[in-house]
Structure formats: C-alpha cells, structure tokens
Specification:
Length: about 350
C-alpha cells in the first residue's frame, strides 16, 4: 500500500533513510541527493518542501518541491532552477510508474510541475501525461571507443595541441574540490559569460549555495594552469555509478586564442578514462563544441500534473509557443526574432 508523508522537519532518521535510498539507487544523481537539497534549502531556496513515499514500510521515493510561478501560474515545482540540471525526484527505478499516484497524495490543489525528468525515469508515464522536453543532454558513451564518437579532425588537432602545450592540468575531488570551489567563479568572471549575461554565479547567495554543495565526495573540479594562474575550469560530479555530469565550464577570455576550453575538455576526458568512467554527460543544452564531442543525446522532460482544464489549456498554449520558437530558431528566420521576444516574455512567468 502506497503512503505519502510530508516531512515538516527532517529528523536524523529521515536523513539516514534518504541517504540510504540514494546510495542504493543506481539511477540516482547528485541532484536528487540530500546534499544538494540541504545546500539549496539553507541558501537560495528556503521554501523547499519534502515528501517521503512508502510502499508498506519501505521508502521508495523522496519528492522535494518548491512553490513557484510557472508561466504565471502558482505551482509546486522541482526545486533549484535554473541551477539543477537533472531530476530532483529520488525514486526506486521499479517504482517510477508510481509518480502520478505520489503526486495525487501530496495533498495539494495547485498544479505540480516536475522538471528535468530523465527519460529512463518517465518513459512509462509519457503516454498519460501532458509533457514537453525540458532540455537535451549530449553525452559520450565512454565504454565505447571515444574516437568513433567525436569529430576526427577536432580530436587529432586537440591531441597535438595537448602534447605540445606547457599548461598544467590538475583535478580536485571531494574535500579538495570544496576547498577550491572559488576558482570556479573566479574564472567565470574572466570569461565572456559575464558580458553576455550568462554568468551562473550572480551573487554571494548563489556562491554560498555552491560552497555548501561542493562538500559532496562526488564533486570534481578540473583546472588548467599557466604557471600559478588558473586559465580554465570545469565543475562536475563524478558519481558512484562511474558517470560524470558536467555542470559548469569556463575559461579566461584573454587566453581564447589558445583554446583552453577545448584543451581542458580533452584532458578531462583522458583523465576520466583512467578512472574507468562509463559516461560523460555534457548536461543540458546543445552547442557546437558539444556536437563535436558527443554522438548521443538524451531528452529530459517536464511533466505537468494536477492541473485543471483551464490551466492545462494554458500550459499547452505555452508548449506550442515554445515549439514554434525552437522551430523558427532552427531556420534563423524573421519569425525566430519575433518568437524570441514572445518567448522572453513567457520566461518571466517562472518566478518564485
């Protein structure tokens, strides 16, 4: 029998149960861990609420949501956006089909929006729910021959540059990564992301979020050094299932002619091969360099539950507008420019 219990305050026993389920569940990622939850809860996202789902006496799922406005509609949503790259829903794989029943038992009357749900977690649900693709994640299957998955010219050219460069490559894990987390935004501030309005670490609250989250033993930071000067940096999570999830990637723009972003990518891949990495996940979002270094992609989904007829129609209108925007973008047309303006307006509807 399914039982869903809201946790007004997590006890030590609750935390231990959460951690035990996370450790046992092979499909779980850093984003569904207690470590990510508590880092968000104690810094940028204090309103997160947590429910435990039990099948008889066995904990089978942990659902963590926050109140937000999604397309101007008050909802309960997966927490931590735009910083959370994967699903925050921790659920035993064999109980994925329980997600609709768990949502029904949350005790809320407002829509429930689950974002960045991996295909493996929602495959059995898509026929019976309103959904859209949240994002696309390119990846490398590291159990296969990498040279058959990347652009041959790019691979050979970069290998020659790596062999001839004088930069040092250093990797930090766990506590060492935590002690060096400030390097991540120090480099980001020297990159072109700030000028383009794409910097992730926008204030001290967000920096504190990452300082706390980087305490995980699965945190990995790779840096490229020119002498004592850091010129490129990667932040990701090398998980116990031997998968690496990239989260942030930037380089000092004054070194752009030396292509430090590409150099640190190749060096990281070679390093992960020695660590028996099975998969390199570039995380959500597509780009030219990702397309050069990844043969495969997988979709992440947004699932819409508990929405009445009116709100469901409203969300479907938004889904259609987004589809039109993406199609126009591919064609780089005048329509794309107009749809971009509309799309930016609709994005304003995602607020806390």
């Amino acid at each position: 029998m399914l039982r869903v219990e809201k946790k007004e305050q997590l006890t030590n026993d609750d935390i231990n149960e959460w951690n035990q389920l996370w450790e046992k569940e092979e499909s779980a990622s850093f984003w569904s861990s207690y470590n990510w939850y508590i880092a968000c809860k104690e810094t940028a996202f204090p309103s997160i609420e947590v429910w435990f789902a039990y099948q008889d006496t066995e904990l089978v799922a942990v659902v963590s949501l926050e109140a937000r406005r999604y397309r101007f509609v008050k909802c309960l949503m997966s927490f931590g956006q735009p910083y959370t790259d994967k699903s925050t829903i921790l659920i035993k794989k064999e109980y994925s089909n329980f997600i609709p029943d768990i949502v029904k038992n949350l005790g809320t009357k407002i829509p429930v929006i689950l974002t960045e749900i991996e295909y493996s977690q929602c495959q059995v649900l898509l026929a019976d729910v309103t959904y859209e693709i949240s994002s696309v994640s390119p990846y490398l299957d590291m159990s296969q021959d990498i040279t058959q998955q990347v652009k041959k010219y790019e691979w050979n050219k970069l290998n020659r540059k790596v062999d001839n460069c004088t930069y040092n490559f250093v990797v930090y894990h766990g506590e060492e990564a935590h002690n060096n987390i400030d390097k991540v935004w120090e480099i980001e501030e020297l990159s072109n992301k700030a000028n383009r309005g794409r910097s992730r670490f926008i204030n001290e609250t967000i920096k504190n979020l990452y300082r706390k989250a980087s305490g995980s033993p699965y945190t990995m930071i790779a840096v490229l050094l020119d002498g004592d000067r850091t010129i490129a940096c990667k932040l990701g999570f090398f998980e116990r299932n031997k998968q690496f999830i990239l989260h942030n990637w930037s380089y000092d723009d004054t070194y752009k002619e030396a292509t430090p972003g590409r150099l640190i990518l190749l060096m990281t891949l070679k390093y992960l091969i020695t660590r028996d990495c099975k998969k390199y996940d570039f995380s959500r979002g597509e780009s030219i360099i990702k397309s050069h270094f990844s043969k495969y992609t997988e979709n992440n989904y947004t699932l819409i539950y508990n929405a009445g007829n009116f709100y469901l129609k409203w969300f479907k209108i938004w889904i259609k507008i987004r589809e039109m925007h993406l199609n126009a973008k591919k064609k780089n047309s005048f329509l794309h420019k107009q749809m971009f303006k509309i799309w930016q307006f609709f994005k304003l509807g995602n607020t806390t």
